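Exercise 3.2. Students should predict the tertiary structure of the chain below and write it as structure tokens, then compare their answer with the key that follows.

Predict this chain's 3D structure.
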Amino acid sequence: MKFIIDTKSTPVDIKLDLVSLKPENVIKTIVYDPITNDCLLERIDVLSGGKTVILKLPVNGKKTIIESFTQKNGRQPLGKDKSFEAKNIKVMPLKKYSVDLGSGDIEFMEFIKNFSLDLPTLDDSSSIYKSPSGKFKIVLFPKLKSYSGEYINSPCMVGKKTGTIEVSKDYFMKLTVSQRIATLSHEYGHFYKNPLMGLEIGDEFGADLNGLTVYLGSGYGLSEYLNAFKKVFKGARTDQNRSRYDMMKKFAHKIQEGQYFTKPYNL
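Answer key:
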């Protein structure tokens, strides 16, 4: 089922009712720009009945396409797949959570938003991209290499001495725009936020929570942050990664309930 929404490039939340007419139905919803065809967001819901979902879109185009389909039947013309329904779609103003973002947080999030949207057209021949003040830098490569010169299967990494983020275009193009921003938010958490909390730059748990905080505070949704985590660590179901995943979900609920503010750690 496909909906074309006139979003006017304005940050919005979109409410959508999904109803499964069979048990354990796996329904995928994707959101994309019909001009660039770049996927903005994706989510998967396993349903045995109805559920209202909120699609958080701080970034979108003049028009936005929302399409829901089942994993089993794939994309079908409107009304042909009788195993589920997508209905009662409603466009609402974007809700941001109560997170006190500093000027550095705001500049970085705006920088990576534009970088992630422009990614399909950006030069990946070791090109350097900078935020307006020049404080934040991203170097774009086709693929990332280790210090020994071998290609590594990683979306991005941050220099522990410089804060410069290196990005693999090949890997990033497999992520939605929201997932690209989530992944870059995590790297931001490593270098720019962990030390402000007395944590080592390399602390993964700290980077998870710091990245999640600025991500949710900028209006993005928890599901995309977690989806980015699952994509990057697909096949690596370690105890540590399970603990990180569970901790992010619990921490996000505190942010959503207004129990957490980042003011002491602003840049």
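Discussion points: Residues 128 and 139 are 4 Å apart (CA to CA). Helices lie at 103-118, 169-172, 177-193, 204-217, 222-232, 239-256.
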